[in-house]
Apple domain-containing protein (Helobdella robusta), 203 residues
Amino acid sequence: MNYNKELLQQNDEYAECWTKTDEHKIIGLSKVSINTTEECLTYCIESKDCKAVDFDTKTVPPCWVQTDTRLNVAKSYLHKAKTVTDYYINRQCIHKLKIHDCWSVTNMHHYPDLEKVTFLEIESCLKYCWEQSKCFVVDFDENTEPPCWVQNISFDIRKSAIKPHPTATNYILDKNCKLPKIKLTKSAISSFPVDQINGLVEY
């Protein structure tokens, strides 16, 4: 894999979004052909429905990730497993960090020709745009109901097109942030908070 060097340096921040539990695993994860912890966790970050990773040193490859959204990956579903380290990700935390790093914000301005969508909170509005392949512009206008406006067709984004507007805040997404170039470093992984769990079922 080739990773953007600037993003690689930034992404130690993602360490705060993970919780690590030694010698435990979740039943029902899917094996992925990845051999390092860093790339295994990165794979999960880049898969929007993934919240759990198991890294099992006894299996080849050792990387197991959540691919089924119906699977319950809460801490109460962990089972003891000596060769496995379980990682749980707070996806809301990841999203907030991406918003912080990736959006250019201009207060009291708007971008013309956006489409209104039914989201009432700015976090939901930005998340919706993030998940649409053609969306890189958002307006959040507190004077409209709902206040969320997004790009729904492809067009060249020009900052010169932003116009003053008394009740709107404009957000423009850095296109590079949607590319799968996130990677966690070993130093970041070693700083994950560790859950101490006792009395769980041996599997």
User: Anything to note?
Assistant: The first strand starts at residue 18 and ends at 26. Residues 91-102 form the longest helix (12 residues). Residues 100-178 form a domain with the Hepatocyte Growth Factor fold (CATH 3.50.4.10).
